[in-house]
Structures are given as structure tokens and as C-alpha cells.
Fold this sequence. Notes:
By secondary structure, the protein is mainly β. 14% of the residues lie in helices and 35% in strands. It is built from 4 helices and 21 strands. Strands 1, 2, 3, 4, 5, 6, 7 and 8 form an 8-stranded mixed beta sheet that branches. It has a 4-stranded antiparallel beta sheet with strand order 10-11-14-19, with no helix packed on it. A 4-stranded antiparallel beta sheet has the order 15-16-17-18, with no helix packed on it. The chain is globular, with a radius of gyration of 24 Å. The relative contact order is 0.11. Mean pLDDT is 83; it is low at 111-115.
Amino acid sequence: MQPKLKSKVRCADQEVGDVTKIIMDPLTREISHLVVSLNGAGERQVAIGLVQAVTDEVVQLRSSASEVSALPPFKRDEYVTLHEVEIPHIEDHLHVSPGEVLVPFPELEKSVKRRTFFANLTHVIGLFIGLPLAFPVLKYLMKPMYAPFDNGWLKIGNIGKIKADDAGTQFKFKRKVKEAYLPEAEIEKNVWILKATPAVLEKVYQGKDMEFRDGTGKTIWTNKKDVPYIAFSGKCPHLGCGFKWRQHKVLGQVFLCPCHLSIYDAAGTVLDGPAPRPLDPLPIQVSASGEVQIIDMEFKAGTKSQTRIV
């Protein structure tokens, strides 16, 4: 069992505080340290090897309270939150309550502040000299960035995978992407699909069909309000993190983002947390044989309005 955020921390001789953050190793994708807030004495970084036992509410350490207090203070600027870095599949290894999960600050980023002023000045001067010569080449290389949105349908699985109504089911799929001048690459993505009851359909559609348009305003697909299958983008509208379908002790089953505690109901409505808008529905169609197709879309995170970016 992984330690939970806000769990009480006890040493061999007494209780010392509670867990405020969790640090994950980006290579092993396992928890490496806990950040423990001592009672009125700051935060300490405790190696996972010092953990003796974990229950639902308590983390028991092998060390004494004085040994934990003697550990170096936790340095927050040496870490970044999980949503600020791209670590494939790391959330699949995360089974803790939502909150602040950290990974070590990338070494390349740490070294930036040690560069000298004159080295940066030289680079800037070189940029201004070379830009007029490089512009035609850059324009050609960057052309794929300005290509129209891909509105093609993608097959992602069969609806038979869904076992209950109003329950989120994750569908993973792969698609090819082209970034500027880089070679075409295949990436893994996911969407969440549920078979909705009439009550959930009403919350999503509010009595109207849902239209999806391209960059020119032309309708490319319409989700009908009486079709029970709903697809949500796999990215949280707050900052683009991946979210999960989880059991909440008060709210029941919900969509829950572990990065910053955004919680959504089966209709994608925000129940709690900093998310500025509901989950983003996607175009979906289901064949007579149950094959599911979606149009893969991504929307700008952190905004109240829904703006498509991919």
C-alpha cells in the first residue's frame, strides 16, 4: 500500500506530523521519498526505506522522532509537480490519494541559471544576425505546425468493454503525430467512455445535440443527445494531467485528477478543485457491432472557454 497524503506519521517513540507531498522516481516510477511536515518544525524529506508500515491513516517509521528532526530540510525548488514534466505512464503507478506529487527537477533545467550573462548575450546577438537568413528555412520546416486539424475518425475498441452504466471506462489507443520538422512518431493516448443513463445525458447535453466544428466554423460531427455513449478527452481541463475513475468516500464514484484535486461526476461536471470547466466531450460514434470511433481533439488547459489546439 502506498502512503496517502495527509496521513499521520509516527516514529518509534511518538507522532511527529503528517505527509504533505510525495516524491516519485521518474526512472523506476515508484515512490522514493515522503515529505513530512513536522509539528511546527518545517518539512523533512524521508526516504521510503525508513517506512516500516502503512495503514489507511498512519505511516509508521523505523526512526525515532529525533532522527527525523535531524534530517535536512525539504528543498521545494529542487522538484517540479508531476503535470510539469512528461513521464509516460507514471500515473499508472500512482495509487495514492490526490494531491501534490513531485519529481526531481530536471538536471538540464537546473544548470540554466549557472550560464553566464555574456554567453547568453552572444547567443542573442547571433540570433539577430542569423534570423533573416534562417527565416525561409524555418518557415518550410515549421509548415506542419500550421496544418489544419485532423478530423479523421479513429477506432479505439469495442463498447463491450463497458460493464456498468454511468461508470467511466478507459480506452487507450495509438496515433501518429508530426511535430514541426521532427520525424512522424506514434504516441499512446486515452479517452474515457461511459454508457450514460438519461439523467447523466441530460446533464451533459441539457436537452440539445452537441455540435463539433472545424477551424472555419463548419460542423464536422454532431453528438445526438439521446445516444447513451459519451467520450471525454483523457486530459484534465485544469492543466492537462491524466485523471482516473475512482471511488470517493463521500461523493461515490467520480473522475479524479491526482495532480491538484479536481473532481468531476459522471457527466464531467466539476464537483471540487481548481478545474475551470467540465471535462471535454469528444465526437463519438458506435457501430451496430459495437465498434467505437472518436475524433481525437485536445483543448487548451486552464481556461474557462473550450479552445481546440489539436
